[in-house]
Design brief:
The chain is mainly α. The chain folds into 2 domains: about 45 residues; about 210 residues, no CATH class. It is about 85% helix and about 0% strand.
Length: about 260
């Protein structure tokens, strides 16, 4: 063990001297190869088969397809964020609505809820149903009439939570076909150009056909997030609406008990 340590100590200075002497040679090598590296980077940046070439070499139809796919993708991500924020807000309002049951009266509990809360909307709907239970409506049993009023309010809340989901479903369904249309259109023009030039070599075919196939990839890139967002938001909507329906059922029993009392 002692002998190995002495050998290691003897080699360390020699190794350091060799590394220091090699630094100038390495620096000269890197300096000599810098222009070649820069040229290769510039060549990669100016890729003749990339998105920039696809946009500059496409016609009005292909550009319209690209713009349409971009708008659908932007709309999907916008709806995902907006609906997520709405559902998170309704979740917090569900927690705040538990204070309703601690109030002395239904009116007092209603006033304690936030003005934009769906639970406040349910409470107001129940109060309005009781106020309108007169005239011809008075022939309907108060139990049925109150249940109808609360159910209408629940349906309206559910309709509001569903807004925008149809757009996500539509984007998830049609964007692959929109991208496929762009692919077919691009391949058609590529084959037309090849036929006019009379050359079908790989360098003539790879670029146009590859650029056309990018359309399919873009269509899938738009569709997959839209489908995932739709399924995720639908599941979260179900959880949110379960809370709303439970509150409506309890509200119906409380208001009916208050009337009979």
């Amino acid at each position: 063990m002692v002998k190995s340590k002495s050998v290691f100590r003897a080699w360390v200075p020699a190794l350091l001297v060799a590394l220091l002497s090699a630094v100038p040679a390495v620096a000269q090598t890197l300096a000599a190869s810098a222009p070649a590296v820069a040229a290769s980077v510039a060549e990669v940046g100016a890729n003749p088969y990339g998105f920039e070439a696809l946009w500059s070499g496409s016609d009005l139809v292909a550009k319209s397809v690209l713009v349409l796919l971009f708008l659908m993708s932007a709309g999907s991500w916008y709806l995902l964020v907006v609906k997520w924020l709405e559902q998170a807000k309704m979740g917090k309002q569900a927690v705040a609505a538990q204070a309703f049951w601690s109030a002395n009266t239904v009116l007092e509990g209603t006033q304690a809820l936030a003005a934009d809360s769906p639970y406040r909307y349910l409470a107001d709907a129940a109060h309005t149903a009781i106020q309108k239970h007169q005239g011809l409506m008075g022939h309907i049993p108060v139990n049925d009439w109150l249940a109808m009023g609360i159910q209408r309010a629940v349906d309206r809340i559910n309709s509001n939570t569903q807004q925008g989901l149809a757009f996500l479903a539509t984007v998830g369904s049609i964007s692959p076909f929109v991208g496929l249309f762009g692919t077919v259109w691009g391949i058609y023009h590529a084959l037309t150009a090849i036929g006019m030039s009379g050359q079908a070599s790989i360098d003539k075919v790879a670029g146009p056909v590859g650029e056309a196939l990018i359309m399919t990839a873009i269509g899938l890139a738009v569709a997959v997030p839209a489908v995932l967002a739709y399924n995720w938001l639908v599941r979260r909507n179900k959880a949110v609406m379960d809370e709303v329906r439970a509150f409506g059922s309890d509200l119906h029993a409380v208001v009916l008990g208050t009337i009979k009392a």
